[in-house]
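Spend some time on the protein that follows and explain the fold to me:
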Amino acid sequence: MEADKSKVRGVVSEIGLERDDEHFRSFNLKINIIIKPLKSVNYEEGEKLMKQFRRSLLGKEVEITSIIFRCPECGREFNNEQGLNKHVKMAHKNRKAEKKIPLRKEKKRG
């Protein structure tokens, strides 16, 4: 439960390379993340959140895991919910139509 409290949601806005200061021919991967608060915040609240993140994250090692949206029909994986929804509409539209067609009951003769 404690791990869930420390999780934040955000969108990766940029990924790039940055030269390692200690090793000339070595590079580090740089990832910029835009954090999405649970609710809309004003400037003062945003500054307060920024200070909290600075205290808790700057200079510390973090573990980043990606969120995968898996198609329930075929198992294909997507980076975002929008991609999954588009896939389901395009790739599985016939399956949904088949499910919605009611079966006709045969009339008993006799």
Q: What stands out?
A: The mean pLDDT is 79. Helices lie at 2-6, 43-57, 81-91, 93-100.
